[in-house]
Amino acid sequence: MSLHIEAEKGAIAETILLPGDPLRAKWISEHYLKDAVCFNTVRNMFGYTGTYNGKRISVMGTGMGIPSISIYATELITDFGVQNLIRVGSAGSYQEDVKIRDTVIAMAASSSGINKTRFNGADYAPTASFELFQKAVTTANAKHIAIKAGNVFSSDEFYADDFESYKKWADFGVLCVEMEAAGLYTVAAKHNVNALAILTISDSLVTGERTTAKERETTFKEMIEIALGLA
């Protein structure tokens, strides 16, 4: 048991899916995992372990933002021996050709500067695990799921003072914005484990389109199918 996860040793699989929303974790366990058992309810950050196609896998919510996912990722790795951490979350598109419900795999994650403290003012470039990235592309191709891959922006703000600021990131090829991948990739690199963020576009800063909270909780299936294929 760790500070924020009440699971016993061995209750969490080596591979875990990490949606931000704990209700999405619950939905994934109910619709994809066989014989799922709840291992965490602390702060209602639900976590479950079951099997998928005969392979043991876990899923757990992480909350919103880099500080939250960094806490859970650190404890999952150091206290429970998790080796593969796969974020499955929503993102806002920065590009005209990145549409609502498109699946994006984050090869790298830019950030607002949270790593500057860790690296004494220097810029650290958090990247995905090549092993998981390669497997995700292969899995997506096998399932005939179209993907886009590239740099994403992990923002520390959801409501920015300057809405137009996204255009600078877009001009440099950043595909979309979310709030966790840079933290996850950094923690995983520190502990020499694998991490990958697979995202579904829930809204577009370009067109103003949005999905509902219920749709984000229960209908972003393609990224989940890719992630489960990595187990």
TrEMBL record:
GO terms for molecular function: purine-nucleoside phosphorylase activity; uridine phosphorylase activity. Pfam families: PNP_UDP_1. PROSITE patterns: PNP_UDP_1. One of its GO terms (cellular component) is cytosol. It comes from the Bacteria. The keyword Ubl conjugation does not apply. Signal peptide: none annotated. The keyword Transferase applies. Keywords: Glycosyltransferase, Transferase. GO terms for biological process: purine nucleoside catabolic process. CDD domains: PNP_EcPNPI-like. Its EC number is 2.4.2.3. Gene3D superfamilies: Nucleoside phosphorylase domain. It catalyses: uridine + phosphate = alpha-D-ribose 1-phosphate + uracil. Residues 16-220 form the Nucleoside phosphorylase domain. Belongs to the PNP/UDP phosphorylase family. PANTHER family: FI09636P-RELATED, URIDINE PHOSPHORYLASE. This is Uridine phosphorylase. It comes from Formosa agariphila (strain DSM 15362 / KCTC 12365 / LMG 23005 / KMM 3901 / M-2Alg 35-1).
